[in-house]
Structure formats: C-alpha cells, structure tokens
Design goal:
Two copies of one chain form a homodimer. With about 200 residues, chain A is mostly helical. In chain A, about 70% of the residues lie in helices and about 0% in strands. The longest helix of chain A is centred in the middle third of the chain and has 28 residues. At the A-B interface, helix 8 and helix 10 of A face helix 8 and helix 10 of B.
Chain lengths: ~200, ~200
C-alpha cells in the first residue's frame, strides 16, 4: 500500500470531485471552495494542480477522452477482424462518452458555453487522437487483405465524423435518448460505413 | 402582377426580416417592435401570423428545412444513379443549412438555448422528413438493382445521422469551418456510407 499520495492521485481525486459536483450542481454553481471541501484538501492545493475553474472542467473532459483512448487502444490491439474491431471502437467512442455524462442531471450546455473556445480546440484534438487509433486498425486491415482503403487517415477521420452526431455535445444525456437507442443507431452507422472499407472479392 | 399580398407573402416577408435581424442582432436582442418596423407593418400584424418570438424563430428554422425538402425532392426525382442522387442529397442537406446561417455573425447558441425544448422536438421531425426522401431513393435504387438494402427506412435514417455531425447545430458557421472543408468532409462521409448500400455483383 502506498502511504504517500502521488501528484496523479491528488489530481485524480480532484477530478473525481469535479465529476460529482458537475453532476449534482452543474458548472455555474460549482465553486473551488466547495470542491476543496469535497476532496478534503485546502483551496491552495487545488490551485497547485489546476489554474482555474475552466482548467478543471477542461481537464475533466480531457480525462474522459484519455480513458477512452486507452480502451480504444485495447480493442485496436485485440482479437477479431479489422472490421470487427473498428465496429466495436465506433460504438465504444460514443457509449464511453454517454456513460461518462449520463449521471449529469442538467444539460452540459452551461459547462460547454462557459469553456467554449478552449473546448472546441481540444475537441478537434481529441478527434485527431481517436482517428489515429482508427487509422492504425485500418492499416492493419489493409495489410491483412481484409480492407481496401486508399487513404487510411482520411477514412479514419470520416468514421469519427460519421459517429460524432451521436456524441453528447450540447445535448444532455436525457435529450440524447436512451443508451440502448444510442447504441443501436451507432451500430447501424458503423455497419454502413464499414462495408465501404471491406476489400472486394475479386476486385 | 399581384396587387394584394397573400397570407403567405406576408409570412415570408416577416420571416425574411427575422433572418436579417438574427444575422445582425441575434435572437436575444431582436424585438417584435423592431421586426414590425423592418417589415413596414404594424406589430399587431406580426401577431396575426405568429404567436410569439419563439414561434417566429422556430418558423424561421422550419422554413429553412422546408426549402431544403423541396431541393431534396428535386434531386431525388432527377437524373443519375440512386447512389449519385443520395450522395448529392447528403451534401445538399449539410450545405443548405450551412448557407442558411453562414451570414450570422454570432453563434446560434443564444437562439437555440432560448427555444431548446421545442427546437429539439422539431429537429427530430425534420430528420424524419428528410429520411423519408432518402428512403424513396434507396427503394428506387433497389428496384433498379443498383442498391441492395434490407430496410430502406433504417438505412435512410443512418445516412441522415451519419451526416448530422456536419450540421451547424450549436456551432456558429465560423466555428464549423470553411464551406469547402465542410463540403469535402461531408462528401467523404457520403462516399463511405454509400458503398455499403451498393448491390454486390454476383451476390
């Protein structure tokens, strides 16, 4: 058992508390005082790790995506055909985000409106990072002769964009609909897109 | 030449003015007084046609989509293979909306936040109406042996959802990017999805 909390442990505990407060109070009403109290540390310690409330919110969103990237990598290097893995990854990128915010009672709109310009920039970066993992699997599929794709990075980006409409962006989870509906719709989009990548027999 | 303005003419003139005011002032700052003045009619005449400011905004959005539906129908019943028409329609549904709001200097966020619940309901309805036109073309393509689709309405909905991420929803046109980038990305998504609908030779 570790007796000394590492820097990462403290940051994780702070972001866990951000998640709870965003769920119960929403971004606007969340204060750093309340956050410090929730974690059981001083306000100064919060500022040692995060510059501002905006930085906390953006780091919280980053953490959701970084955890997703780990899961995507696991599927990418796992079993199955390239198409199977891509299908799983497309559904995963949507449901991971759905599950990460589904306990938020209010819409994420106030959070996103508050951190908008910085968020849009990071969001573009998140999509790029995801697309790279998809491109790896597409390249692998081409190498195995399962897929036939002229430009894997372009196809990877299109797969990401095609499923972006299913992400909880400014919709709350409640507005987005039920998890199983989101899953079914995303699976259908994935199915449709992936047929376009398959190697043609005899082509 | 018509000497008497019809009900539709007046409504169209009012909505044209709504469009100009949304572009120059934004939803929050727009007033019915200003609107009546812009059209050159009395405030009472505005209320004869529209119940409220919210009704004006929603009717304006409806008009954008109804005009799109007319264009989609024209392409749907036009020349070319089913895949060609579907591809054109997918790009059209994105660019028509892009062009309809690209002159708005501020983000549409304040408009959409103000009319949110009613807007989300209509938006779902808009997608349904669009999907029906797509389903018609898919059925036509199947009848001609060009496409092979088990459930045209389901495939139509997936095509609509797959390109929804390219719509200016809460992004302003500026945030969404340049028109030619939107066009290119949408074309790629369309390309990817449509291969999945093509009839397999010898299948």
């Amino acid at each position: 058992m570790k007796s000394v909390a590492t820097r990462e442990d403290v940051q994780d505990r702070i972001l866990d508390a951000v998640d709870r407060l965003l769920a119960s109070r929403g971004y606007k009403k969340m204060t750093i005082d309340e956050l410090a109290q929730e974690v059981g540390i001083g306000k100064g310690t919060v500022y040692l790790h995060f510059r501002s409330k905006e930085d906390l919110a953006l780091s919280h969103i980053d953490r959701i995506v970084f955890r997703l990237l780990v899961k995507l990598q696991m599927v990418a290097h796992g079993e199955g055909t390239a198409a199977d893995r891509l299908r799983q990854m497309l559904v995963l990128r949507v449901l991971h985000r759905f599950d990460s915010v589904q306990h938020y009672t209010s819409s994420m709109s106030d959070l996103l409106a508050a951190v908008r310009p910085a968020f849009l920039k990071r969001r573009e970066r998140h999509f790029e990072l995801e697309a790279r993992v998809f491109a790896e699997v597409i390249e692998d599929g081409c190498a195995r002769g399962e897929l036939s794709v002229a430009a894997p990075p372009t196809a990877a980006r299109s797969l990401v964009l095609a499923t972006n409409s299913m992400l909880p962006y400014s919709l709350s989870a409640a507005e987005l609909g039920r998890r199983k509906d989101v899953e079914r719709e995303t699976s259908r989009i994935a199915e449709l897109c992936l047929v376009g990548l398959l190697a043609r027999r005899g082509a």
